[in-house]
Amino acid sequence: MFQNPKKNISILSITLGSGGAEKVISLLLKVLKNDYNVTLVLFYNVIHFPIPENINVVVLSEKGPDRPFYLKLIDSLKFILKYNRFIKINKIDKSIAFLAFPNLINGIVSIFNKNVRTIISERGFPSDNVSSKLSLYISKLFYPLFYNRCDKLFSNSVHINKDLKDNFGIKIPMEVIYNPIEIPTKTIDPKTLNTDKKLKIITAGTLNIRKNQIMIIKALSEIKNNDELTILGGGELHDYLTAQINELNLNSQVTLGGKVKNVNTYLFESNCFVLSSFTEGFPNALLEAMAIGLPCISTNCLSGPLELLNANIPVTINNGEFFIGKYGLLVNNDDYIGLSKALAYFRNKPEEREKYSALSLERAKEYHLNTIYNKFSKFINN
């Protein structure tokens, strides 16, 4: 009798919403299905990214994620029981979790299921990825308790792994596997960026404090010109940013584009990308902009931008200045004066826009889905 040689693996996530970790999961599913019987297990039925055929999907709760704290606590206990039962019934060989809470559940599952290999993935810089001192205390208590029960961990930055080891006591084997990307079939011809007389700046991300889009708006107000800025994304700071744009008389130059699915269309119509975040895990938006062929400017935040734009070679940037990296420009966190000078550099030197457009395309190829998947496959099977 024929037996399916493929092993059974599960991917555990809170949702498949519009976040960076969820984007990585959606891409990995495209190739994982060729080598494994894959089940995507979601806590809540929120799905933004397409799910490939032949992927089994299990939703543990039909309730939405926006619930009172006490109900979320009850949900959590149910998820542990349901996922533990799922692992046993479906004879899962490898359970791979993304993000902190699924990671903790994977650690708990490993206590009761000795036959499953548990692999976890940290996607944000842990010390900066908590909302309060209480959250940090809880993380420092439970991360070492349950993360260390898993077989191994992968993140998307060397800085994340170092933080986990130094500040959270994580001792299991850790590796860096960067976010994958599908190179677009249509990219910018760098030579076309040598002709524009003004900058068409774009950024993309949730409108919140961490993404710090106000930094770009302030930088634009520093220099009187006709540059344009498009901010893609929705979030809690929409009204605040709208008010700041009005106060600075930038209505004719700054557009809040809201949530869009065709981000590449907007990127293709721009000639400069800016990432203004205070902190990142590994910035998909920056990598996607580079894959289109945009010259890029980013804050030198932890983690990701230094790795992408300067091959992780440390830099020192004076306040009010910027650094010319191997693959893009870097500025200090929240330094809108330094950002205004970096923007002036690209505006006044169109030949540099052309140069860094070509470098962006070259750099992005190193993160092609097939290349990253080969590393991921070796990691989970080693």
In one word, what is the shape? globular
SSE series: EHEEHEHEHEHEEHEHEHEHEHEEHHH
Question: Looking across the biggest beta sheet, what order are the strands in?
Answer: 3-2-1-4-5-6-7
Kindly report how far apart the N and C termini lie. Answer: 29 Å
Question: What structural class do you assign from the helix and strand content?
Answer: alpha/beta
What is the compact description of this entry?
It contains 13 helices and 14 strands. By secondary structure, the protein is of the alpha/beta class.
Structure explained in plain terms:
With 382 residues, the chain is of the alpha/beta class. The chain has two domains: 7-176, Rossmann fold, CATH 3.40.50; 190-367, Rossmann fold, CATH 3.40.50.2000. The chain is 41% helix and 18% strand. The protein has 13 helices and 14 strands. The strands form two sheets. A seven-stranded parallel β-sheet has the order 3-2-1-4-5-6-7, with helices on both faces. Strands 10-9-8-11-12-14-13 form a seven-stranded mixed β-sheet, with helices on both faces. Strand 1 (7-13), helix 1 (20-35) and strand 2 form a beta-alpha-beta unit. Helix 6 crosses helix 11 (336-348) and helix 11 (336-348) packs across helix 12. The longest helix is centred in the first third of the chain and has 21 residues, at 69-89. The radius of gyration is 22 Å and the shape is globular. The mean pLDDT is 94.
